[in-house]
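Name: ComEA family DNA-binding protein
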Amino acid sequence: MIRKALAAVLLLAAFGQAFAAVDVNTANEDALRGIKGIGPTRAKAILDERSAHGPFKDAADLAKRVKGMGGHTVERLQAEGLSLGPSNAQAGKGGGAKQATPAKAATPGQPATTVTVKK
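Structure predicted for ComEA family DNA-binding protein:
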C-alpha cells in the first residue's frame, strides 16, 4: 500500500516537472536542456549570448541573438515550455521606482520633462 502511494506521488512530481515553464533569462544549462528541442549545444549558445549581452527582451530578441534559432524555432520551444520572463532585475522585486528618463528632448527655453514609473 505504501509503495503504491509513494509511486503515485513520484509520478505526479515527475509530471509536474515536465509541465513547468523554464524562463530563458534565469535558467541554467540543465533546465534549458529539459526543454524538448534544446540540446547541449543550443543551451550553451543561449547561455553564452545571455551572459555576453544581458537578458532577452522578447521572443524576437532571442531569435535574433542566438545563432540557429529563428522565429519558428522559438515559437516551437515556447510551446514546449520555454518562457521569456522579466528581462530586468527590478521586474521581480517589489518597491522602488524605475530610473527617471526624459520623455522628450527639451526645446530651447523649456526644461525637459521626466516621467517616473512606480511599481
